[in-house]
């Protein structure tokens, strides 16, 4: 799962990337424009997995999430296909918006205005999609003239619908699509269709004000507000001292972006985790909500899916409370389910399969 961080220059993208990944990439007020981007794969923290791993005394293998910091490349650089490509490859987009004041750091639009930036970036995403749709429609028209095709006609109709929607200045993620339509347009990797997290980077004086900002867009979009600078300062302190410091800033209940972000992105992308216990490790797997046992088995290995017999299922908490599979089974907490069983968040799953 890849999250790509983008936004105007000097909004705190690399600072955010460092906070999410514990890296120490250079951040700077003035440095020259480069096309360098950063990426890192990090563990998705999960206390439940840690507890199961403590029980078995096997190391935990956490689910992974990849972050990409796009650096100083932007829509404004003409023909920047590298940048658009980075966005297309993402499962989720993270638009970072500047809401902190600093007279030394110039905002390309001349002033600090988070809502303006959100709307402009939404417009950029829609424009990229609009242009690819127009191009494809032209091509289909030519092809249909040469040879009649039901598929092409269907695609044409659907793309026309999307185009009309974009013309109303709405992102595609707000359009309800059925599974057939989703399949037809999968290859386009439309940007305005991707789940979007708006991350507002503010400083302590604006924190409470922006927290109350009510007019932000909502559909399939989430807004998180964080204090990049303060957070990186907090992380330099010993854990015990952070509470005092937070109180001083009036941020007593402040939640660190790393935790907050992962939680939010899971919710936004409709993701959940299930766990497996192997011979020497316990492992977390990420799946979409409403995934069947059969599909989940395929995530682990095609052999397990092809030879699927049954899945043994137990809630992680029931397992720990019972102190093991045997007792859990005696209490009737271990269920035996078939291919179509829908896996829930936090279940420990053991697949029985024909080798
Ligand atoms: N005051 C203040 N400064 C910040 C905050 N977040 C980032 N900065 C500063 O903004 C400057 C740019 O931060 P970066 O993380 O390098 O921003 P960026 O978006 O990666 O910049 P480019 O990659 O050059 O576009 C640095 O000097 C940061 O210290 C913040 O919350 N408050
Ligand atoms: Mg940067």
Summarize the structure.
The protein is α/β, with parallel strands linked by helices. The protein has three domains: 2-113 and 194-267, Rossmann fold; 123-192, Orthogonal Bundle (DNA polymerase, domain 1), CATH 1.10.150; 290-353, Ubiquitin-like (UB roll).
What can you see in these coordinates?
The protein is an alpha/beta fold and 355 residues long. The chain has 3 domains: 186 residues, Rossmann fold, CATH 3.40.50; 70 residues, DNA polymerase, domain 1 (Orthogonal Bundle), CATH 1.10.150.300; 64 residues, Ubiquitin-like (UB roll) (Roll), CATH 3.10.20.30. 42% of the residues lie in helices and 20% in strands. The protein contains 14 helices and 12 strands. The protein has a 6-stranded mixed beta sheet, sandwiched between helices. A 6-stranded mixed beta sheet has the order 3-9-8-12-10-11. Strand 6, helix 7 and strand 7 form a beta-alpha-beta unit. 27% of the residues are buried. Magnesium ion (MG) binds next to helix 1.
Task: Describe how the helices and strands are arranged.
Layout: E1 2-6, H1 13-21, E2 38-43, H2 47-56, E3 60-61, E4 64-69, H3 81-88, E5 92-99, H4 114-146, H5 150-167, H6 179-185, E6 196-202, H7 204-211, E7 221-226, H8 228-236, H9 239-248, H10 257-268, E8 271-277, E9 282-288, H11 293-300, H12 302-306, E10 308-315, H13 316-322, H14 325-330, E11 335-337, E12 347-353
Parallel strand pairs: 1-4, 1-5, 3-9, 5-6, 6-7, 8-12
Antiparallel strand pairs: 2-4, 8-9, 10-11, 10-12
Helix pairs in contact: 4-5
Bound molecules: guanosine-5'-triphosphate and magnesium ion.
Magnesium ion is lined by residues 13-14, 69, 71.
């Amino acid at each position: 799962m890849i999250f790509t961080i983008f936004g105007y220059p000097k909004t705190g993208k690399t600072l955010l990337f460092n906070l999410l990944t514990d890296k120490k990439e250079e951040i700077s007020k003035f440095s020259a424009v480069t096309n360098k981007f950063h990426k890192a794969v990090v563990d998705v923290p999960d206390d439940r997995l840690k507890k199961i791993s403590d029980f078995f005394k096997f190391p935990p293998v956490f689910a992974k999430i990849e972050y990409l910091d796009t650096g100083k490349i932007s829509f404004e650089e003409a023909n920047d296909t590298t940048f658009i490509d980075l966005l297309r490859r993402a499962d989720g987009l993270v638009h970072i918006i500047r809401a902190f004041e600093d007279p030394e750091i110039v905002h390309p639009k001349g002033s600090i205005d988070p809502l303006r930036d959100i709307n402009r970036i939404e417009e950029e995403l829609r424009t990229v999609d609009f242009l690819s749709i127009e191009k494809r429609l032209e091509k289909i028209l030519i092809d249909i003239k040469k040879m009649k095709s039901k598929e092409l006609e269907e695609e044409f109709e659907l793309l026309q619908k999307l185009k009309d929607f974009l013309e109303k200045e709405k992102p595609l993620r707000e359009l309800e699509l059925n599974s057939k339509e989703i399949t037809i347009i999968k290859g386009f990797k439309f940007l305005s269709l991707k789940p979007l997290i708006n991350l507002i980077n503010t400083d302590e004086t604006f924190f409470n004000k922006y927290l109350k900002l009510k007019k932000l867009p909502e559909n399939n979009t989430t807004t998180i507000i964080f204090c990049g600078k303060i957070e990186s300062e907090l992380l330099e302190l010993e854990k015990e001292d952070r509470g005092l410091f937070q109180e001083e800033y009036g941020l007593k209940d402040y939640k660190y972006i790393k935790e907050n972000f992962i939680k939010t992105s899971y919710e936004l992308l409709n993701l959940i985790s299930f766990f497996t216990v192997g011979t020497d490790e316990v492992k977390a797997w990420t799946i979409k909500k409403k995934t069947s046992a059969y599909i989940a088995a395929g995530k682990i290995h095609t052999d397990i899916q092809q030879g699927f017999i049954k899945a043994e299922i137990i809630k992680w908490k029931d397992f720990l409370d019972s102190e093991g599979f045997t007792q859990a089974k005696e209490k009737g907490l271990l269920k035996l389910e078939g291919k179509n069983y829908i896996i829930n968040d936090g279940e420990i799953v053991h697949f029985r399969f024909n080798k």
